[in-house]
Amino acid sequence: MQITLEDILGFDKQYRTNLINGLSGIKSAFLIGTTNANAQHNLAIFSNVVHIGANPPLLGFIHRPVSVEKHTYENIKANGKFTLNHVPEALYKAAHQSSARFDRSTSEFEACGFTPWFSEKHLAPYVSESPIKIGLNLEEEIEIKSNQTLLIIGRVQEIWIAEQLLHADGFIEINKAQTALVHGLETYFKPSFIERLPYAKAN
Amino acid sequence: MQITLEDILGFDKQYRTNLINGLSGIKSAFLIGTTNANAQHNLAIFSNVVHIGANPPLLGFIHRPVSVEKHTYENIKANGKFTLNHVPEALYKAAHQSSARFDRSTSEFEACGFTPWFSEKHLAPYVSESPIKIGLNLEEEIEIKSNQTLLIIGRVQEIWIAEQLLHADGFIEINKAQTALVHGLETYFKPSFIERLPYAKAN
């Protein structure tokens, strides 16, 4: 069955949102932790997290236009710090709840039942329950001209990970971490390991 | 266990590559199809595909600096067309093989065992075996200053999807599509459905 651009533009908003959000597939769910100048903590679920580079270590995420939602963005701009926390599979409902519109004075940590945790070196709050926690400094902010969406890039400052998740060659055995995946805006999955393949070579 | 930025910069290259590539988690695997001016087709696996916006319908993907690998990029620049094809779970090994360095005159379709398929309206080749095929026109190209990586954004022109994968509200029932997920550069997973949650509301 073919769906054309004309069809897409003609769909009602909810149908189009569901359809297009689903096209990019399934992704690991992340909770992004930030803090503001009044030491109020913010936590929000994001799924559009990408690898930008290994040296220097850079990760990015897509942030909706700041006219729409902005606590995470404002906090990152204010102090340059954020955390990316893989969502434990058992807590996907709590993580999803962080997408609700809480007012600025509400900590989503408390409202959703997560425990903020701090390292000595990084201002932004980590999610204590997360098996893979990443602390980042804002490195680059890019506005996508097509629709004013932002690509926020951070430089990894520290990683907190259980030692048994690390293979001897640096590979993260994420299959042992029991983390949640999300599809579109609201559908949760867990990963089933198939196989680690060797580096591909042309014959 | 803590790993600091200093640790990361001090690791040997392979260890660092494995570790940092794993941080961004698990993602749907895609085959990107393109064609050049000599009508030679190219196919390459990508996993850093993101949702940019629903209206207009925009998807993006991260492309390594063009000094490193460039057939996909060159083809997109030459004619402005590409396809994103979800990888069938049963064909993850063939999809992985497309990451090998084939020379320009080799079609990865043939070399890896995929069938090129064309719609009347879109120049770039689709992967016939894929259950969700997306045809896009180049919309925007962004160079990330931090490391010269590119974010390539396309506007969806058409979607080819089996009707039984589409829920009445536009949601794609990807759990029925049996597509593959990838973690880091080489580890494959399949998704296990947990639950579709309602839109989250603050109490």
How would you describe this structure to a colleague?
- The structure is a homodimer of 203-residue chains.
- The first copy, chain A, has one domain (25-189): Pnp Oxidase, Chain A (Roll).
- Chain A is an alpha+beta fold and 203 residues long.
- The first copy, chain A, is built from five helices and 13 strands.
- The first copy, chain A, has helices at residues 5-10, 13-23, 71-79, 92-97, 108-112, and strands spanning 2-4, 26-28, 30-35, 41-46, 49-53, 58-63, 81-86, 116-117, 126-127, 132-143, 150-161, 181-183, 187-196.
- In chain A, strand 5 (49-53) and strand 6 form a beta hairpin.
- The mean pLDDT of chain A is 95.
- Helices cover 18% and strands 37% of the residues of chain A.
- Chain A has a seven-stranded antiparallel β-sheet, covered by helices on one side. A three-stranded antiparallel β-sheet of chain A has the order 2-12-13, with no helix packed on it.
- Chains A and B meet through strand 1, helix 1, helix 2, strand 2 and strand 5 of A and strand 1, helix 1, helix 2, strand 2 and strand 5 of B.
Main beta-sheet strand count, sense and barrel state of chain A: 7 strands, antiparallel
| Subunit arrangement of the protein | homodimer
Report the CATH architecture of chain A. Answer: Roll
Provide a count of the helices of chain A.
Answer: 5
Mean pLDDT of chain A: 95
Q: Which consecutive residue ranges of chain A, at least 5 long each, have pLDDT under 50?
A: none
